[in-house]
Design brief:
Strand order of the largest sheet: 1-2
Radius of gyration: 22 Å
CATH architecture of the largest domain: Orthogonal Bundle
CATH topology of the largest domain: Arc Repressor Mutant, subunit A
Structural class: mainly alpha
Number of helices: 8
Shape: elongated
Distance between the termini: 52 Å
Number of domains: 2
Length: 169
């Protein structure tokens, strides 16, 4: 019975730093670990936090980084195309586009086909920034891929299947 009480106190006590409390906390079982979706959420959260740390010195956010990559791959894309590709809310995309345009990383130009539409283009500065950022993010990506190494192609295929299941592509 005394051990049960100690284990219940361990999480609070661990915050206070005692070795005994930390050891007890390390022995706790998280029943949520049996759920695949929960594990995906935890890993996603950790990866995004790390990505934010990578982007911070460049004064970029994840949305900015995504938009730079998408515009680089699709020069002349209209704004709505970004929203569709990212599954993002239009106001969030517009805020990011405003930031990127203000930083002189991209331009919005009137479409030759329909002057009501704006096409997106990276500037030379935007291409240089993207190259530098991608070099850092590629290091994170390589570490993730090395961790999955056993069946990377199968894992990526399964993630694609999950995206299809949830209508994400």
């Amino acid at each position: 019975m005394a051990q049960g009480v100690a284990a219940k106190r361990a999480p609070g006590a661990a915050r206070h730093g005692s070795k005994r409390a930390r050891a007890a906390a390390d022995e706790l079982i998280n029943p949520m670990d049996r759920f695949v979706g929960y594990k995906i959420r935890r890993v996603q959260h950790a990866i995004i936090n790390e990505l934010n740390d990578i982007l911070r010195p460049f004064e970029l956010r994840v949305m900015d980084f995504a938009i730079l990559n998408i515009v680089d791959a699709n020069p002349g894309l209209i704004q709505n195309g970004i929203t569709k590709l990212l599954g993002a809310e239009p106001p969030a995309v517009v805020l990011s586009l405003d930031r990127l345009e203000g930083g002189k990383y991209l331009t919005r130009q009137a479409s030759a086909d329909d002057r009501r539409l704006r096409t997106l283009h990276l500037t030379a500065s935007g291409r240089r920034l993207l190259k530098a950022v991608n070099a850092k993010v590629d290091q994170q990506e390589q570490r993730i891929k090395r961790t999955i190494d056993a069946d990377l192609l199968g894992f990526v295929r399964a993630l694609g299947d999950l995206m299809d299941t949830y209508g994400l592509r």
